[in-house]
Design a protein that fits this description.
This protein is of the alpha+beta class and 409 residues long. Helices cover 49% and strands 14% of the residues.
């Protein structure tokens, strides 16, 4: 008989989450980059020698790596590739998102055993896509051209996303389409009044309206919490409050229409530097939602800031169409196509916040710093090269320490 899993106590949670974070970051250099946001911005504090361009202050992702881009569904049922994690969002320098995405592309290329020259071309393609998105400007024209440029790998992910239903989400997230959350390695029992506080939160009219906000639901439907658990999920966010809440909508018994899964995630201070004089919400949950509405409206319009256990949290319903991009094993041609497209996704997110003249000035500034004949602008190339080197060294040291810790245990 299999040994029954014992959820960590409240006192044990911190250590268990820290150990899981260390393990995840040791799995690959790309995984380390995804989890090392703080280190990225520590490096940027020393990066003045590369003369980074100072773009117009707009909401930026702040953690713009490949895992934070992917298909996202709107409340009306439309699906598009957008930024899907806004924990680090601030009003800041858009160049920071470009460097972060460039580093992620470079480490993904290394994971696919692609030659260094391919990395140089990927960064060039990423910048070309970003540059073109700023030029397109008009929302309808941009949507049409972006769709036309989708590489096969992106189209395949979108096609899979559009065809997904509740049963797909339930099997991936809670292992079963039945109305319960199985306690185990990923989902832990709640403690010390957590269940009561979650139930009280979901009894509010604000949360009810968020849950019934999808086009397919009746705005007047009642909402009932069926089950809830602490969720061990993510990497850099491990250690913050994180809950999965299974909800019945309208009292229906049809698994596709009657149930939904809501993610509650603590909003912590951002490591990304804000632009001088930037005015943002002081509450971290409100900051995350404001950034999401600006950068990824499909996602932002489905999010809600709230308070739980005296901390700012963000609620959002997980939809079957919301997927993470995984492009760690691409051919040279696919990698360059994906880099160009994802650069355009970020350019679209930044550009929608700028008027025409601001977009033109920012595009001209990037072009001025991008001499013809170069694979990528010097500031981007030098930044990514330095970051790859520093993160590789830090990753190896992380693995050494992780191995020593495992041996000691």
């Amino acid at each position: 008989m299999a040994k029954r899993f014992a959820s960590p106590t409240m006192d044990e949670r911190h250590g268990a989450l820290a150990a899981e974070r260390q393990l995840k970051m040791a799995r690959s250099a790309h995984a380390y980059v995804r989890g090392a946001t703080q280190k990225f911005y520590e490096w940027l504090d020393l990066a003045g020698a590369h003369d980074l361009p100072e773009g117009p202050p707009v909401w930026i992702c702040g953690d713009c790596h490949l895992g934070n881009l992917g298909p996202v569904a709107s409340a009306e049922g439309r699906v598009d590739i957008q930024i899907r994690d806004l924990d680090q969002t601030v009003i800041g320098n858009p160049a920071h998102d470009l460097i972060r995405l460039g580093l992620s592309l470079a480490t993904a290329a290394r994971g696919s055993d692609l030659p260094g020259v391919t990395t140089a071309h990927m960064l060039e393609e990423m910048m070309a896509g970003y540059h073109q998105a700023l030029a397109d400007g008009d929302k309808e024209a941009l949507a049409a051209t972006a769709a036309a440029r989708q590489p096969k790998s992106i189209k395949a992910v979108l096609a899979r996303s559009v065809g997904r239903r509740w049963r797909n989400l339930a099997r991936e997230r809670i292992e079963d389409a039945r109305p319960r959350i199985p306690i185990g390695r990923r989902f832990w029992n709640l403690h010390d009044g957590e269940r009561d506080e979650i139930a009280a939160l979901f009894s509010t009219e604000t949360v009810r309206r968020m849950v019934t906000g999808l086009k397919s639901r009746d705005d007047a439907s009642p909402v009932e919490v069926l089950d809830a658990a602490y969720w061990m999920k993510g990497c850099s966010s491990l250690g913050r409050l994180r809950y999965a809440v299974l909800v019945a909508v309208g009292g229906g018994k049809d698994a596709g229409a009657g149930f939904c899964l809501v993610d509650i995630k603590e909003a912590a201070p951002s490591a990304a530097p804000r632009a001088p004089g930037a005015v943002m919400p002081r509450d971290n949950a409100e900051r995350v939602v404001a950034g999401a509405k600006a950068l990824s409206p499909y996602l932002g319009d489905r999010m809600l800031p709230a308070r739980l256990r005296d901390r700012g949290v963000v609620l959002r319903e997980l939809l079957p169409q919301d997927l993470k991009l995984e492009i760690d094993t691409l051919s040279r041609e696919e990698a360059m196509q994906a880099a160009r497209y994802l650069g355009a996704v970020v350019g679209k997110a930044h550009g929608r916040q700028m008027d025409a003249s601001t977009r033109t000035r920012w595009r001209d500034e990037l072009g001025r710093r991008w001499p013809k004949g170069l694979d990528a602008p010097f500031w981007l190339w030098l930044s990514v090269v330095d970051l790859v080197g520093s993160h590789e060294a830090a990753y190896l040291e992380h693995c050494r320490r992780h191995a020593l810790g495992a041996q000691a245990a």
